[in-house]
Design a protein that fits this description.
287 residues, alpha/beta, FAD/NAD(P)-binding domain, 2 domains, 5-stranded parallel β-sheet, 6 helices, 24% helix, globular, binds flavin-adenine dinucleotide
Length: 287
């Protein structure tokens, strides 16, 4: 029984504890501290007679999970996909690929979006957040990927065989990016996205324009929303939809913590993580 958990915040670590105590081999894949890193003083969580920082709480929680045999991998997850043989899941990180029988998404609240005029207006009408889902619709078209990191390169590689023209838009980041043949890099900042019914062009800060049929959002790292979308996990208002056992609509995939919405607090994340960890293990035992 191999359970992969994405995220080492309260939800991910709590899920790890319960899955591990239930007898599973557990790997937590995490890119580091989550929302807790910004919490200077926690006074409303059970069990501490003096306030402690979010960073301290996270560190102690991870150490406790390690003591029980939970394995932690520092990596940035770019996609979670069904395994090639149809059994279990394949978690694609920047550094490695991880395979498991069940996956728990605990990657925190959906990320903030860039405030470029037109980006939200054209969502679903030329603006996409999932190359695996939508690349096929852009066969032979001019496509751009908005982002400058590993996740953007990952999305660009998926689009490369389909697009006639593919440009990586770094939106002002001067980072030196190595791209495969067939991918152009544009460093200018975006002023706005224009079109009538669908996206038609990008206007840069200097007034220059570039015609595009589609823009794929991949700035920063993949968040819960992007990972869920690639797997076909149902979301409502950007939050992952779960049942009472924290199960999603995709068998074997669970979600917990801020990514499911509601009360964005540690206590709720810990409860949901526990429920997800238990449910994942009992589901795998029944197989
Ligand atoms: C400033 C601040 C103060 C707060 N104060 C309190 C408080 O006093 N009390 C309280 O109860 N709550 C507080 N909260 C809220 C609390 O921190 C969150 O509700 C809680 O951390 C949510 O836990 P989570 O596990 O769902 O997500 P997070 O803690 O955000 O953890 C998400 C995890 O996912 C990982 N991750 C994300 N994307 C990827 C990826 N692509 N690949 C690999 N890993 C990934 C992150 O690195 C992180 O480890 C505060 C939040 C903030 C921002």
């Amino acid at each position: 029984m191999h359970v992969i958990i994405i995220g080492s915040g309260p939800a991910g670590v709590s899920a790890a504890l319960y899955a591990r105590r239930g007898g599973a081999n557990v790997i937590v894949v995490t890119k580091g501290a989550g929302a807790l890193a910004a919490a200077e003083c926690i006074e409303n969580y059970y069990g501490f007679d003096v306030p402690l920082t979010g960073a301290d709480l996270e560190r102690r929680s991870i150490e406790g999970a390690k003591r029980l045999g939970v394995h932690f991998e520092t990596d940035e997850v770019m996609a979670v996909l069904p395994a090639d043989d149809g059994h279990g899941f394949r978690v694609e990180g920047v550094r490695s690929v991880y395979e498991g029988d069940a996956v728990i998404l605990a990657a925190g609240a959906p990320r903030r979006t860039l405030s470029i005029p037109g980006l939200q207006t054209f969502e679903g009408r030329g603006v996409s957040s999932c190359a695996i889902c939508d690349a096929f619709f852009y066969r032979g078209k001019n496509v751009a990927v908005l982002g400058a990191g590993d996740y953007a390169l990952h999305e660009a590689e998926i689009l490369r065989p389909h697009a006639a023209q593919l440009t990586l838009l770094t939106n002002g980041s001067a980072a030196d990016i190595r791209v495969s043949d067939g991918i152009a890099v544009e460093h200018r900042s975006l002023a706005r996205i224009e079109g009538t019914r669908r996206v038609e062009r990008i206007v840069f800060d200097d007034g220059a324009e570039m015609a595009v049929d589609g823009i794929f959002l991949a700035f920063g790292t993949a968040g819960s929303s992007e990972l869920a979308r690639k797997l076909g996990v149902l979301q409502r208002d950007g939050k992952i939809v779960v049942g009472a056992q924290m199960e999603t609509n995709v068998p074997g995939v669970y979600a917990a913590g801020d990514c499911t919405g509601g009360l964005l607090q540690i206590a709720k994340a810990v409860y949901e993580g526990a429920a997800a960890g238990l449910a994942a293990v009992s589901c795998l035992r029944r197989r």
